[in-house]
Amino acid sequence: MERDHIKKLADLSRIKLEEEELPGIARDIESILSYVEQIKEVTDKTEVAPGLVRNVMREDALPHEGGAYTEKLLHEAPSSKNGFIRVRKIIDQG
């Protein structure tokens, strides 16, 4: 890669480069571009085993009727009132 190209890239990137850094940067950029070319040549032809692809999620549906466990939950709570679990006040709005 030519020095002028590297200087232009540095200017566009707002990176200040000293003149003595240019050869090292040029080598690094060439190495990166070479690696990118190698990656482009890779063809991944692997197939997924058919037994491994399946939906393990449940269907979207109500798991039970609304309120089916309300009484049981309220019974387990330390304190309840009018169908709600009572808790201590922790936020003072004053």
UniProtKB/TrEMBL annotation:
<dbReference type="Pfam" id="PF02686">
    <property type="entry name" value="GatC"/>
</dbReference>
<dbReference type="GO" id="GO:0006450">
    <property type="term" value="P:regulation of translational fidelity"/>
</dbReference>
<dbReference type="InterPro" id="IPR036113">
    <property type="entry name" value="Asp/Glu-ADT_sf_sub_c"/>
</dbReference>
<dbReference type="InterPro" id="IPR003837">
    <property type="entry name" value="GatC"/>
</dbReference>
<protein>
    <recommendedName>
        <fullName>Asp/Glu-ADT subunit C</fullName>
    </recommendedName>
</protein>
